[in-house]
Amino acid sequence: MDKNTKDKVNFTIANAYDGIETVFAKYKYQEFSKHVHEGYTIGVIEKGTQRFYRSGEIHIADTNSIILVNADDVHTGESASPEGWQYRAMYPLPEHFENICSDLCVEKKFAPYFSSSVINDQILTEQLRLLFT
């Protein structure tokens, strides 16, 4: 591995729903140990492959995969390819989903539970990319 290649991360706060945190990251060497987030992780792998632990299993997410981690779900993250992985992600809080339910006139407010950790759906991937743009 070329140690001259640096990992890069750019966090921003979107101007939607009282600010949803977003990230664009390029990782080659980063290895995240087990941790949790207050919010969800919804991301798209732009390049490379990511390996991560979630819900008691190891998952592999290739280029164009969608990754999903529930709020307060213990997970990890690391490269599963020599070139590392690059992704875009958002970190909505459960309250963001509840607000969206209210905006859609859904009578019951709820935050979802994502049973799948990796989704391979090209149309949904492109929709998420548009949202990040």
Short description:
This protein is an alpha+beta fold and 133 residues long.
Which secondary structure elements does this structure contain, and how are they paired or packed?
Elements (H helix, E strand, L loop, with lengths): L7 E6 L7 E7 L4 E4 L5 E8 L1 E5 L2 E5 L4 E4 L5 E5 L5 E7 L2 H10 L14 E2 L2 H11 L1
Protein architecture, described:
By secondary structure, this protein is α+β, with helices and mostly antiparallel strands. The chain has a single domain, classed as Sandwich (Jelly Rolls), CATH 2.60.120. The protein has two helices and ten strands. The strands form two sheets. The protein has a six-stranded antiparallel β-sheet, covered by helices on one side. A four-stranded antiparallel β-sheet has the order 3-8-5-6, with no helix packed on it. It is globular, with a radius of gyration of 15 Å. It starts with 7 loop residues before the first strand and ends with a helix. The model has no long low-confidence stretch (mean pLDDT 91).
Structural class: alpha+beta
CATH homologous superfamily grouping: Jelly Rolls
Order of helices and strands: EEEEEEEEEHEH
Work out the helix count. Answer: 2
Low-confidence residue ranges: none
Question: Average pLDDT value?
Answer: 91
Give the percentage of residues in beta strands. 35-45%
Lateral strand order in the biggest sheet: 1-2-9-4-7-10
Give the tags.
single chain, 133 residues, alpha+beta, Jelly Rolls, 6-stranded antiparallel β-sheet, 4-stranded antiparallel β-sheet, 2 helices, 16% helix, 40% strand, globular
